[in-house]
Every structure is written in C-alpha cells, then in structure tokens.
Write a sequence for this structure.
C-alpha cells in the first residue's frame, strides 16, 4: 500500500515572506596538525602555536617528538608541558591510534616546524614509524597541505633528493629563510615573518605578516 501520510513541508511557513530558514548546525573547528621535531629552531613551532590563537576556527593538534624535547630544553626556556598547553589537543609520538593518524579525520593540513632531516627522510620514503611521519603521510595521501620547515645547512645531495621526493609527493618545502625586506630588528621579528609566511601558505591571513609591496 502506498504511504498516504502527509509529508513535512520544506520552505517558508504559509504567509511568510522572509528568508527560508535552514537547519542549525553546530560550528565545528577545523583541525590543523603542528609537529615539532629534533632540528634546531623549536621556536618556530612554538610561535606558530601562539599565532594560531588568533584564528578561532582552527583547532590545533600537536605532536612533539622525543628529540624535539631535548632541543627545546637546549634552545629555549619553554618546557614540553607548557608548549602542549598552547594546543587544543596534544598527542604522544608513539600514539599511532590517534585520530590524526587516519585520513578519515579531516584536517586543514599539517606543519612540521622545525623539520629535521630524519623526519624529512621519513616523509620522502613513506616510512611512518611514528605519529609525526604517519600524520604527514596521511596528509599527503589525502591531498592536504603539508609544510616542512626543513632546518639544516649546508645540504648534501641526499638531503636535496629527499626534498625533491617530498615535494613531488605534494609537500611544500619551506625552510626558515629570513626576509630582510621586512627590516627585522630582532630575532623575534625574523621568527614572526617566517611564521607569517607559513600561515600565508595555509591561506590564513595574518595581519602581522609583511608582504613585499615593490620597490
């Protein structure tokens, strides 16, 4: 027998001339993965986390590698615990069951700041031995932005091959190269300009980022 029950009406109520009401949906933040690895330059990842607080639509997911913890202690007055408090969520590098290890967990992308050569090689070789490399591999396979702030110099042919392979897979190689046209006066100025570049590549408009306006 056909169903003859009245079906719910869609659109404006009778006699209404106002806009059609749409169902309310809960506002959801878009996750962004930030990883700190064992290269020099932990301050880049720290400052990125701080600047991301200006974007309420972004939910930060942080991974700090074991080697990064040692570098943080050597280079900064920060502690890993204090850095983790800058993020919305924090994951252990061995926690391969974390949501960010799966492509079905939607994200806005991932930034590895700084990116060690070890991590670069893992990304280039699809060697997902820890959560940093696994999350990066997932980001690439899902065609999402992956920014690698590779921090090493000078570079030998092996380093360059890994950069090329990562770039061919879809990663953006973004070494922390200072932009002196911004007239930096302090180390903090240099860090902020580079972090601003990272945000720009992600499509996030940072008002503090100084763009080249021509001579």
């Amino acid at each position: 027998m056909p169903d003859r029950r009245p079906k719910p009406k869609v659109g404006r109520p009778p006699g209404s001339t106002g806009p059609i009401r749409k169902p309310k949906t809960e506002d959801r933040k878009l996750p962004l993965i930030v990883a700190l690895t064992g290269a020099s330059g932990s301050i880049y990842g720290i400052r990125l986390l701080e600047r991301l607080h200006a974007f309420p639509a972004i939910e930060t997911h942080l991974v700090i590698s074991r080697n990064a913890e040692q570098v943080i202690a050597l280079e900064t007055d920060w502690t890993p615990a204090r850095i983790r408090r800058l993020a919305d969520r924090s994951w252990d590098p061995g926690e391969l069951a974390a949501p960010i290890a799966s492509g079905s967990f939607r994200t806005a992308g991932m930034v590895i700041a700084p990116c060690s050569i070890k991590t670069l090689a893992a990304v280039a070789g699809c060697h997902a031995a820890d959560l940093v490399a696994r999350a990066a591999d997932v980001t690439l396979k899902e065609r999402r932005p992956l920014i690698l702030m590779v921090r090493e110099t000078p570079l030998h042919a092996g380093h360059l091959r890994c950069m090329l392979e990562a770039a061919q897979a879809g990663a953006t190689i973004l070494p922390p190269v200072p932009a002196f046209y911004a007239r930096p006066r302090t180390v903090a100025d240099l860090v902020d300009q580079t972090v601003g570049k990272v945000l720009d590549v992600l499509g996030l408009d940072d008002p503090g980022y100084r763009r080249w306006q021509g001579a």
